[in-house]
Protein: Pseudouridine synthase
Organism: Paenibacillus silvae
Amino acid sequence: MSIKSWKRRGQWLELMPGKAVTGKEDRQAAADQWLLSELQFPEKLLRQIKAAQGIQLAGDRLRLALFAVQPLGVEPRWADLNVLYEDDFCLVVHKPAGMKLHPDGTREDQAITLDHAVASYYEMNGIETSVRHVHRLDEDTTGPVLYAKNAFALAILDEAMRRKTIDRQYVAIADGQVSPELRTIDAPIGKDRHHKQRRRVSDGGQVAVTHVSIVHVWERATLVRLKLETGRTHQIRVHLSYVGHPLVGDKLYGGRSDVIGRQALHGEKLSFNHPLTGALIEVQDPWPADFEQLAARENNTRGERT
């Protein structure tokens, strides 16, 4: 997919499909086929848009009502939001430590979640669309979270998640000196019957693969970068604990206590193909202050760089 020429006009996306549509006798059928093949437009969504008269052909222009007004779906509640990337299709924001991603309905006076903050951002900026996160982060993990700003973007990005073409790179500080021979952790993860919140490596669990790259080995800890091949709950935390190097601060999985007060895990980079153009989007998220401070403290002891 490579759509280079497009414009947004209010609620409409305007495209120029060329002779693949304009040169055909049945232009409507040709437009449908072009959308399905060139944009990988989901068939169900295409039917919905057609039923709502959301497709127009005018001269050499094809117009789609992709930006129709939709309810936020989440109560807007203000919190300071660090926007890392934004266009008409995608929003990437930094999730701070201690903030849940979305409301879970456990209590009425629930703390503000990232979804609440994004809803507030949309409201303040006149973005009349639903709040739709594409992937998740644990409450105490920091890093970038991708949001889809229309139903088409959500469908394309959800499919990219299923195909594992959205690349998430994490950086972590693990307890102890991790062996340079540790490159991949391939161990299935399931629920822990004895602890509601925990997960554990289990033969009957779901396939889980984490790729490990060692950056620094210090006296008491190791700075590692990690890429997920799968996205199981607590995957990095479970896997590093399983190989004997739990994350610093991760009490749930046996990590040593530290003033960081959370697991030392940060989403450092998010890469994905733009849902419309196919262009590669790479979003960096700088280390948060508490992670920087922990790394500096560990680095003050004599260690070895790899």
Remarks:
- The chain has seven helices and 16 strands.
- The chain has three domains: 6-64, 69-163, 164-306.
- Residues 6-64 form one domain.
- The helical segments are 19-22, 27-38, 43-51, 114-124, 151-162, 235-242, 289-299.
